[in-house]
């Protein structure tokens, strides 16, 4: 084996799921560090985990499947947090629920900057139109769309809810991305205030 390789203790029967988790976590770390999907190699992931490269193929058929798994889990985590925030405030009204969702979105980015970069800051290999339609990004979009539609219904807004969903998400994402990118401590109260201003504009529309 090459210099620096440390072989992982061979898994016992039934421990394959644990090894798969290690592979996914290693791939996620390496993607966040490199910032480029093209730079991820299965051989490097295997070395990070401490297994032989062919062992990865027992769990993933190729790099694309491994990256898809990493991506799906990250988006699922964000979507779950957003839906939890939204449903937790539904009794207070659709506007309050949408506000909770938007604030949680920014909070997620600030509390998990590396995961947020994994979601939106990695240079990806472009997928086909068919693959794009099933991308896990749409699980996050669905939460935003549901929240905006409920708010529109409650306030009788006449603007196109799909257009508002895209504009609102893009705006909140921009605030979150800037907050994560700057090399100094973020003023959370200022970010929260700007999110509230955006929501007020949505309701007014």
Question: Outline of this structure?
Answer:
By secondary structure, the protein is mostly helical. The protein has 10 helices and no strands. α5 packs parallel to α9 (161-181).
Helix content: over 70%
Order of helical and strand elements = HHHHHHHHHH
Question: Ranges with pLDDT <50 over ≥5 residues?
Answer: none
How many β-strands, per DSSP? 0
Q: How much beta, percentage-wise? A: under 5%
Distance between the termini: 63 Å
**Alpha-beta content class:** mainly alpha
Describe the main β-sheet briefly: none
- The average pLDDT is 90
Rg? 20 Å
What is the global morphology?
Answer: elongated
Note down, in words, how this protein is organized.
The protein has 205 residues and is mainly alpha-helical. It has helices at residues 16-34, 42-49, 53-56, 63-88, 94-111, 113-120, 129-133, 137-155, 161-181, 188-204. Helix 1 (16-34) crosses helix 4, helix 5 (94-111) runs antiparallel to helix 10 and helix 9 runs antiparallel to helix 10 (188-204). The radius of gyration is 20 Å and the shape is elongated.
Give the secondary structure arrangement, pairings included.
Blueprint: H1 16-34, H2 42-49, H3 53-56, H4 63-88, H5 94-111, H6 113-120, H7 129-133, H8 137-155, H9 161-181, H10 188-204
Helix pairs in contact: 1-2, 1-4, 4-5, 4-8, 5-6, 5-8, 5-9, 5-10, 8-9, 9-10
Based on the model shown, name its key terms.
mainly alpha, 205 residues, 71% helix
